[in-house]
Amino acid sequence: MMARFRAQASREDGAVEDFEMQGIDEDYRKAFLEDEAEQQQPLTQQKSSAVSAKSKLPSNNNMEGRKTSAMLFCECSSIRGMPKIARSSSSFLRRMWLSFIIGMTLVLIVSSSLAVRSYLQYDVIVHTSDIPEFPSKFPAITICLHRPFSQRALSLWANSSVMSPRGYNQRLRRWAQEAINKTESNFSRIKQKDAVPIFYALYYDMLEMYYQNVRYEDTRLLSHDPSVIRKCIIMTKWGESHFKDPCNLTDHNFSIKLFSHPKHFNCYTVEPNSEASSLDTIFLGLAVDLGPKPDYLNLQQGFLNDVFDQATGLRLVIHEPNRYPDVEQFGKNIEAGKMTELAYTPTLWNRSNTPVKPCIEGDAEPFEDLGRRFDYSQRECTRMKTQRAAMERCGCIICLPGHPRPRIPGPDVAYCGTFTDAYNRTTDDFIRFSNCYVEDVQPSEDHLKPCLSRCVFSEYETKLSVTEWGATDWQVYWSGKYLNDIEELQRLMNQRDSRPEEEQQGLAPRFDDVKKRIMHYLTKENLTSVQASADQMVESKNFAYVVLKRKGENLILKQEKQVLTLNALMSQIGGLCSLTIGLTCACIVEVVEFFYIYLTTFRTNGQAGTAAINNDGGGGGVGASESSAGVGTHGQRTVLLPGTAPTSLDLDNAANHGDQRIEHRQLHQRSSQI
């Protein structure tokens, strides 16, 4: 702003004689006159004014500055209603807007707290999607026979090498008889401890208790060999078929592993060994021999408590490779003499790892069951903790279906249900172990820590269908023979091509044997003539044929997603802020700006007031540099001394100071109204 001042002052009376001003309003003129009047006061009056100002500076100026800053913040704030409080001339309207701001702020705080609380609960929903043409690994299948004893068991029982089921039943009954005989003639006076064997004689006459009273090595001898899976067939997605009779899948990267079960004794898990074979296989067929019929007339009298569990056929479970097969909980029964098709759809679970329900990324520590190593699973982890607590406190191994056994039982640590000489235990040991397991096995500190589930795991939704298998024994015989001869011929050709020519002659006899077998099939007039010598498994209905195949190429993905994510929480809180008081992120900058202006103004006013007091109380006037220039200072205001002419810088300072005094006067009037 350009202005021209011309002033002539009289040194005798200190009065201003003339002002010529252009482009300056009345407020600027008053501000300049006030500065000149203050500068022309006598020295003694300036000293007294300085003392008075010094005494009032810490209180009045600070209070006035706070009010002015608060009004400035309210007027310039973007919060809805704050400018209304600063600008309104009515006290009713100011109170109304103040009540609105307080009420809406409380609503905002409560609503935001509820939203944050909901977020911290980490509720999830399961989002299911169907992914087409997605390759997945072929599952493992564990097969158990409802009739667990093999033909070899009959001979072991007959020569008394192993205690028979009949011998086990008689031992329980003798135990109960001894308890009754202790009461002599007055049975009504029988004691509780003497009645226990009577209860146990019936309650513990079951297959899984017999399993615990036979040595582990003998349980394997009593049950079936892997050859119980008589025939098997594998198909790949490339159209290849491999029929095996007897079933041996080693050449196709499949293995058959033993799994010992308290009810079914020897079970067998058929699973792929490599990722390539797991991804390529789409079909697996298993024809299982059900073994000999029970000899109830002689050696298999017993197991009265299993009367409702006895069945014929198979019990199987489909699970991930190298995972513990929980046959009891997830198993399916397969009817004898039928063809059962299990069409599965792979389902991949992807759980959300949240602080409320955490899960394990990747694989955790594996565990062992009777020397076989299994990958981690949550259910078996929990049961393993109970197992270890029983071994530590009771000195025995829990033998229940689904409970992993970390070591093979022996005379030092046997099963909790044993009471025979198989592990050098007595009935008293059995009662002590049973009481310890029921009463003393409590969750320890380690057991209280929950086992976490895996974040990523697979399930297999299976649809079961049953029908008659229309094949005959002679068809199965020739099919197995012919396919085996073809595979043998292919192996011989591969070996011949990989050897030097001089070593190829050694394979000639084997080629002749394969040729002879193939020609036997090709020249046979009546293929049914081998009926008498063929295996009678199919037509005798003493089999179960299981087909496991993938239903389609699609994958079902079940993914857990948070109901309220962090982005959704911020959006919800932002909507609440906008709905109530219009609070935005800019308010943070406004608060910082307010404190910056307040602190800067307070510090500047304090320094200016102190400088003015020091100058007025120093006895004399102005400094040498200022007097030489003809200019004096009062706070931040530039004042022309008498007899000096203003420069352009002096004129600009006077104009700026006039602006500040006008603004200060307006804010002071508004704060006084409040």
UniProtKB/TrEMBL annotation:
Subcellular localization(s) per the UniProt record: Membrane
Keywords: Ion channel, Ion transport, Membrane, Sodium, Sodium channel, Sodium transport, Transmembrane, Transmembrane helix, Transport
Pfam families, alphabetized: ASC
Low complexity bias: start-end ranges: 47-56
Region of interest: Disordered: 1-22, 35-62
Origin superkingdom: Eukaryota
Transmembrane stretches, start-end: 97-120
UniProt record similarity statement: Belongs to the amiloride-sensitive sodium channel (TC 1.A.6) family.
Protein name: Amiloride-sensitive sodium channel
Organism of derivation: Macrostomum lignano
